[in-house]
Amino acid sequence: MTDLTALDNAHAAMTADDTNDAARLRFYERLADSELFLLLSEEPADENVTPELFDLSDHRFVLVFDREDRLTQFTGAPAPYAALSGRVIAGLLAGQDIGLGVNLDVAPSAILIPPEAVNWLAETLGHAPEQAEARIEEIGRPTGLPEVLLQGLDAKLATAAGLAHSAYLATAVYEGGGRNHLLAFVDATPGAEDALAKAVSEALTFSGVEAGALDVSFVRASDPLAAKLAQWGLRFDLPQPEQPQEIGRNAPGSDPDKPPILR
User: Fold this and answer.
1) Residue 235 forms beta bridges with which residues?
2) Counting Cβ atoms within 10 Å, is residue 262 exposed (0-12), middle (13-18) or buried (19+)?
3) Where in the chain are the domains?
């Protein structure tokens, strides 16, 4: 099969070596970041969704697919579904003793994720970074960060389209002599700061790196600090979204502030 998805590749890396914890974490990160098509028992009503439940391997499972055509291939005919991110689905299922069947019978990434693993994923995604204030006195080149973290940041920031113009990874020296690596976002969209900080926190977690290894800050392109970051830092360009098109009624889960209600 040549038409592999990011989830297929992450699953292959995970199953190639059962002892590779980093690959397992990356799979769960891809699962959380992916848009998944959740098989429903009926068409969604307003913000309510009713997943089809299956009794498999001593647990109940809902089924998700990372492509719409894979869902149709599984069902053999058009079926109702809700397109939601993996993180939203994990949050809906947490604590309900329901597992997640992913791409069953239709892809090499087919896997049954038991309820306890769904709970772990939801809990991990729910961790919020701590806030603190400190004055930056010097900026230098980043050194000594593991390659797995750099790859994790690159992949995570690729999912943050439109939340900021760019970001710089650098070493920061703070007032009082403290020193740490810093990821500074340039021209973040107002209100996106929490989402960006959480994205960085997840990149650390799913890279297997301690959370204290990286600070996050926000600057405007006109700030003097931005020029120093451009001089010394490692730059990440965030994708910029296409111009939005006018659409009709929103689908359940399309508004992150109003997640669907599981029935």
Assistant:
1) 168
2) middle
3) 6-126, 136-237
Write out the two tokens for 52. 């089809």
In tens digits, the chain (263 residues) has pLDDT values of 458 999 999 999 999 998 988 899 999 999 999 999 999 999 887 778 899 999 987 899 999 999 999 999 999 999 999 999 999 999 999 999 999 999 999 999 999 999 999 999 999 998 877 788 889 999 999 998 888 889 889 989 998 999 999 999 999 999 989 999 999 999 999 999 999 999 998 998 898 876 557 899 999 999 999 999 999 999 999 998 775 544 444 555 555 556 666 66
Closest CA to 71 of 27, 102, 113: 102
Beta-bridge partners for 86:
none
CATH number for domain 136-237, candidates 3.30.429, 3.40.30, 2.60.40, 3.10.350:
3.30.429
